[in-house]
Structure formats: structure tokens, C-alpha cells
Known about the structure:
The protein is of the alpha/beta class. The protein has helices at about 10-20, 25-45, 80-90, 140-150, 165-175, 200-205; strands at about 5, 50-55, 60-65, 75-80, 95-105, 110-115, 125-130, 135, 155-160, 160, 180, 185, 185-190, 195.
Amino acid sequence: MAEVTVVTHPLVQHKLSIMRDKETSTASFRRLLREISLLLCYEVTRDLELTHKTIETPMEQMEAPTLKGKKLVFASILRAGNGLLEGMLDLVPSARVAHVGLYRDHETLEAVEYYYKAPADLGDRVVVAVDPMLATANSASLAVDKLKRSGAKNLRFLCLLAAPEGIKAFQEAHPDVPIFTAALDSHLNENGYIVPGLGDAGDRMYGTK
Length: 209
Ligand code: PRP
Ligand code: URA
């Protein structure tokens, strides 16, 4: 079973606490999500392979470390995934981007697909699927299914908050995909919302409620 990494960095935890506060404005929520995503991106890319290339510094020639292989792919699970995506692209501007459009049916909590577009050569790249919330994991599991069907083999999933129920369901569906999260919360409520959570991530990002 792939690992679950909780990113306990004090800056991540501090920013997340402000995001959870219901008094935090839409503008601040969006800015904090972008800032946190830089720090989470740092963790999710920690084990990327390096190679060396010969360069000339002003002083001498050296074998300098550079990232090995093709450019990364960040796969944003719309709509809230875009909040994480933007900060990650600040850190890795050359990354390729996949978009997976899904929304959660409020009655059944099943994920409903409405859009999918991904780079053609996913099989040759590290793919990081991003969504702030892992609740039932129906959305994340379907998104990763689709990416795998498009050829992705080396995947990881990055979120801000995860519920234990979501971790269990995702690991059952995708035991090969490691999970990175800023926090592991208590449980899901009767409507499938993470508790204590932060509410509806998309609504808080875009002020749609
Ligand atoms: C939210 C969130 C995840 C999903 C998580 O999206 O961004 O995609 O719910 O829940 P799950 O783990 O139970 O599937 P939502 O459906 O509200 O769509 P949005 O991002 O467009 O707001
Ligand atoms: N989606 C959200 O945005 N928040 C939750 O708590 C659960 C699913």
C-alpha cells in the first residue's frame, strides 16, 4: 500500500488554520490556498529523480544536478483543484496540465464527469492529481481512474484535507498511488462533508455561496 504523508510544516498548518476559519474572506482563502500549494508541491516533488548535465559557471565547468525525464503533469480536479494548481505552476512553470471536470451529486455523493483533457504522453511522466478535498474519495478515485486509462502509471494524489473514510476508499481503489495532505480530519458528516473541515472548498474559493 502506498504511503499517506501528512505535511506538518508549521507554515502549512498556520495557513490552513486561517483557511478553516469561517470568517476568512474569499480573497484571503484563495491567496492562502495558492501559498500553501507551493509548500505542498515542495513535498510532493521531494523524491523526483535527478540527472546531471555539464555546465560552465563563471568559475569552472561542473556536473550540475537537473530533473530527470519528461516534464511533470499536474492534473487539476475541477473546480477547486485549480486553487492548488496555480501555486504549483508558480513553482514548476514548465509542468504540463490535465483538467478533470467532476462535480459531486449532492444526493448520491457520486462524482459526475463533465470534462476531460490531458497531455497525450501521460505514461512517460510523473502525474500529480490535485484537489483540496478528499471526502468520500469518489471524485479523486474517478479522476485517477481516468488518468490511468489515459496511460498514467506514476501517480500521486495531493490534497489539503482528507477524511479517514476517503483515505480508506482511495487506498482500496488505488493502492499504488501515494497521498499527500496537509491534514487528516476527524470524519465525514451525514452530508459527506469533512469535519471539522473548511466547508465547501469551491464555494469558499470563488464566493459562490
Ligand atoms: C468537491 C471537492 C472535491 C470533492 C470531494 O468538489 O473539490 O472534488 O468535492 O468530495 P468527494 O471526495 O466526496 O468526492 P465539488 O463536487 O463540490 O465541485 P467543485 O470543485 O466544482 O466545487
Ligand atoms: N467537498 C468539499 O468542498 N468539502 C467537503 O467537506 C467535502 C467535499
